[in-house]
């Protein structure tokens, strides 16, 4: 199983093709709590994280945001009372790049650091 | 037009009825950039705010979160690169309470303080 959390995002060019199902399959076992969702024809990688209150959820959002800034790759983060939903995809290619799987694995590390 | 931003949230009991269209109508002129949306049968008040980058969006999210904590009433906040979407509704009554309109007006004040 690849250790995605140890990888860094690579430059993604507009001409790059989104990953195929065959390319995605070996990456999923490392991300068992993430789901592939499709929104407006774009495949995305999504997970909801649960928290005890709003303040903890907001703190997690802040730390995922800092991770995103550090890598120059940004998710959609929905913050609610006791829950944060993080969605990764690559706007440029309107789909999933290996970078999204790396960032999902790194997001899991942020929440583990939280507990 | 009521000055909603000057009001504070009142305690909302589970037995309270969501506002009717007739009760909502006079509150909307003060919130011209907000939309009433319906999701899963629940009426919600929603606005997207645009920013120059992710960092500014995340900062706004943090400040709306602090406002929410101060009032004990919490929205869903979706943070993306250059955009934050804030959605207010009252979970207890599965609809819109006057508190949601007050918080929408106060959210507008947060963004004005940002510019």
Using a beta-carbon cutoff below 8 angstroms, give the protein chain pair with the largest interface and the number of residues from each chain: A-B, 17 and 17 residues
Strand content of chain A: 15-25%
The amount of helix of chain A comes to: 25-40%
Count of individual helical segments of chain A = 3
Looking at CATH, the homologous superfamily of the domain at 42-115 in chain A is Transcriptional coactivator/pterin dehydratase
Structural class of chain A: alpha+beta
- What is the overall silhouette of chain A? globular
Radius of gyration of chain A: 14 Å
**What are the segments of chain A in which pLDDT stays under 50 over at least 5 consecutive residues?**
none
**Largest beta sheet of chain A, briefly?**
4 strands, antiparallel
Can you identify the CATH class of the domain at 42-115 in chain A?
Answer: Alpha Beta
The oligomeric state of the chains shown is homodimer
- In CATH terms, what is the architecture of the domain at 42-115 in chain A? 2-Layer Sandwich
SSE series of chain A: HEEHEEH
**Sequence of strands across the biggest β-sheet of chain A:** 1-2-4-3
